[in-house]
Structure formats: structure tokens, C-alpha cells
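Entry type: protein chain
Record version: 2
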Amino acid sequence: MTADPGPVGFPPDALPPAAKLTERPHPLTPFIRGWVVLLAVVISMGREFLPNGEGPRPLPPLEIIVAVVAALAAAAGVAGYISWRFTRFVIDADELRVDTGAIFRRSIRIAFDKVQSIDVVQPLAARMFGLAELQIDIGSHERSKLRYLQLGRAYALRDYLLARARGYQAEAATTTRSVSVLTDLHEADEVLVQVLPQTLLLAAVTSHEFWAIVLGGLLFVTVGLAIGQFTLRGLMWCGGLSIFLFYLPDILIYNKGVKYQDELRRGLADALDMLTVCVEAGQGFDAALLQVARAASGPITGEFARVLSEIQIGKSRGDAFTGLADRTTVPEAKNFVSALVQADRLGLPVASVLREQSNQMRLVRRQLAEEKAQKVPVKILFPVMLGILPALFVVVIGPGGIRIAEAFATTGH
């Protein structure tokens, strides 16, 4: 099995070792990360001066307001500068290191062979200044983030880190062209489908989700104003109900996604056992994958079928399974994909890798079952205290309490 050529047409061993690269966040990073705190402080202070049915409260003198805002801005600026000054992204020979903290130093190390994907994300505040953050997926639930870089520099650093993750000793781009907020870095891509803005707007307005949000928002605003009238209580009801309605679809989708991932985790062990048996019996890997997709049950069958379809249309096996890892948050599935991709890259026997992963999967499933069993006493404690014990006290102590009350009543007469 031959190695793929490097980014410049040479094998990875022929390239010189990459030098240490140090990157610092953009100077505007403290302002972008601190505006939420300033906004929360302003809202909490301004809430005290809203009308609440008792008449408007007098505002403090303008000098005091300016002084308080200036002091908060100065404190936030100093804290942000210190945080920015002691934050660095260091790329060594084998890992990416994120150093933070002025008093208590913290170092997050990310090995290149653990990197699965890197996304360039632009939050609203960062997009206003033409900045972006890098989100690095290493197979865990929480992604490591590099905040914030210039947009062009973020794309260049992402390409460099992905090249290092693939084993290439690539050379980092030291200069990048300046881009603005309105610059489209994908303007040279091939356009497959082009949709007019009018068509998108019409589709959004005529969708049932749009009208559900509008009508639901009006309903909740009406209910909030009916409960609290035009006071602070009414505004809080309106805001709370509107926020609940806005996030309700996301909560439902998140709940459905959690259930899907849980079903995938439960079916992965059995599917992997079947895949191991088929491969050890002499079937090819693709034929064994097809057999599992047909015979197994659960969401994992659909994922395996999609991987097989991508392989059949020309995608490499490693890229197809990497896509499976990107679509799931199950650590066991990510570990299985990582081991399979490494075996395919290094030319190792797939059967031995599957057997080892199958044994590991059984061990993980046994540990999860033991963990759930250990949580049972804690979970049943509150139902017993709130539901069973009160009824038991009534049955056991109730008759005695009635007789004691009757005895005191008789003694009193």
C-alpha cells in the first residue's frame, strides 16, 4: 500500500520537518468575548428603572451612569487584554497546544492523529469584524476552539492543521490576503445550484414553520400582556414565553437526536459483532458491510448503508467512515472509525482490528450497564421520599394519631 503524495507532490518522508508555529488571537478578541458580559450588566442595571406599576423611578445623575459604564468597560478591557496577552496557539511537531491563563496557566494539547475535522465558524459578533473561530473535533463531546482569527488566516490555518493531521509536513502560510466581512472566500468554487433570493424569501414566508412561529409568538405576547398588563411583569411573561417558543423546536430536535444517538450506541455492538463474524468467515469487507446493513436493526444499519453507497460511488473507505464519525456524537463509534481508518491507511488486517474493537465494545457496554446499575439507588431515592414514604406514614401513623386526638378530646370534656 503506497502513501499518498504530499501537498507539493512529494512523499511525506521527503519533506523537511515543520518548524514550530506560534499563533496569537486577533487583538479584537477581548471585545468580542466581553460584549455579552457588558450587555448583561446593562440589562440588570436598567431593569431596576423600568416601570413596575408603582410609578417610574428617577434615573441617577448622568455623571454616575457614565462613570459606572466607563469603569465596567475599563475593567473588562483590562481583563480581556490580560487574557489575550497570555493566550497562544503553538503548533509543535506532533501536536497543537493552546496556552491560556495569566495567573493559573492552562495548556490544552491536541495530537494531530486525533483530529477528525476542523470547522470555520463565524458567530454574529465575530462576523461583524471579519473574524472567525476554529472548532476542532477530536472525537470527544466538547470541541476545542481557537478564538478569534482573521477570516483568511482561519482558513489558511485550518488547511495547514488538516495537512498536518494527514501526516504531511506542510509549510504554513505566513501571510494571507486581507478580507472584509463581505468577502466570499468560496467565489472560485463551481456553482451547482443557484437559487434566487426572491425564491428563498417566498419559500420561507410560505412555510408552515414561519407561520407557526409568528402565530405562536403573537399568542404568547397576548397571554403575557393579559396576565401582567403593560408592566414589568407583563414584559417578563412576554419575553419568557417568546424565548420558550423560539427554542422549543431546537429542544425537540435535540431530544430526537439524543434518542437517535442512544439507539445507535445500543445497536453498534451487535452490528460490529456481526461484521467481525462475516469478515472472519471469509467475506470481503464491503460484502460484510452490506450483510450487516441488511440483517441488523437500528440506526446503525442506515449509517452503514450510507457508507457503502459512498464507497460504491467512488469515495475512499477512509473518507466514507470519517463522514460517519462526523454525523454521530457516540464516542464508541468515533473510536471504531478512527481505528478502521488507521488500519486502512497503514495496511493492517481488518479482521484483527474488528476483533479487537468488538472486544472493546463489549467491555464498554458492560461498563455502561454497571454505571446505570450504580445510579439506580440515587434515582429512586427522591420518588421513595416524595411518593411512597408519605403514604406509608399516613397508613402507619394515621390510626394512632386519630386515637390520640380522640383521647385528648375525651380528656378535655
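Comment: The beta strands are 21-23, 88-91, 95-100, 106-111, 117-121, 131-137, 144-150.
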